[in-house]
Write a structure and sequence with these properties.
This protein is mostly beta strands. It has helices at about 5-10, 15, 135-140, 310-315, and strands at about 40-45, 50-55, 60, 65-75, 75-85, 95-100, 105, 120-125, 130-135, 160-165, 170-175, 180-185, 190-195, 200, 220-225, 230-235, 240-245, 255-260, 265-270, 280-285, 290-295, 300-305, 325-330, 335, 345-350, 355, 360-365. The strands form seven sheets. The protein has a five-stranded mixed β-sheet. The longest helix has 9 residues, at about 5-10.
Length: about 375
Amino acid sequence: MKLSRTTIVVASLAVATAVVPASASAHGGHGHGGHGTTLKTVTDLDGPRGIDYLGRGKTLVTEADGSFSLVVERKHRAAKVIALGSVPAGFIAPAISAGPHGKVYILTGGGEPGTGAATLYQWRWGDDAPTAVFDVAAYQQTDPDPYDLEDFAEDSNPFGVVALGDGSVLVSDAAGNDLIHVWPGTGHATTVARIMPRTVEAPDFLPPTDPDGNPLPPPGTPMPSEGVATSVTVGADGDWYVGELRGFPATPGTSQIWRIKPGTVNAVCDPEHPYKGACRRYADGLTSIVDLGAAPKRGVYAVELSKMSWLAMELGLPGSEVGGLIQVSRSHQRELVPYQLIQPGGVDGNAPYVVGPVFGPGALSKVF
């Protein structure tokens, strides 16, 4: 299942889950340390998701109404939130990334044509409003997903964005299951890589039937599942990293992180042959990844919307609202602030900083 459908359903659970205390218990986990880390609120926000830490206590954030702001931390005083602008609101807050020369890029998720959805916007310090610079949905009409499982190969739900030092931008499309390289100045774009579906086993929490009464497979049944490319970051090593949510049946522990060399075009991320070609598996065993951020020592941070999976959250299973922040390297995964994050949406900075819950009242917080 593509994120364009799943998150709309998840959003309907916001009232029920966003107010659950962070101490709520949850199943699952990564079996590694993480105790001793603490979470400190910087400022309250409404449904935050996009985040880009600029350094020196300054962080760009986005909220559910499509607004983006600069949060400035101040010693012995409350942080100052400076409103910068807004883009059309969607089913979830947009993504954001600061580029060179004072430019900021804001990415809206999927939606109806003509609404400003599935669009990359550019804003420069001093501008009155952002300017649309690239229509991701239109691009996907000419670049259908060859591995689509839902009879909608041209679907688009751009979800992750990172600006590069040369002025170009990377966009991960959760419905197109691909990574796109965009040059906003010219409107030119190329497909960097496509993620193939993966065969997973049906989890044990599936109900007997779907909402329409159709039978669902019993636990352990092998079935194909789309990758759902939600996130992208540039690592400390300069390589490009892409994270997966994992489509239906959202089996926990089957989300992967892929590593791609800069300049790659038309690579295939193949879970059956994960260490061949220009797109190679960097990490496996994660669950419902919604954001990535560069971590120290060539690692990455991965944000898990739910440690039990987005589908478990959609089904309202106890504890499924608890997400995770995982520090990932090639040989190790360490969970930070375990059981303290509810529906987290984004991460950035070496510290790092996190935002969430993505639905309902939330905050920008710092991990110590």
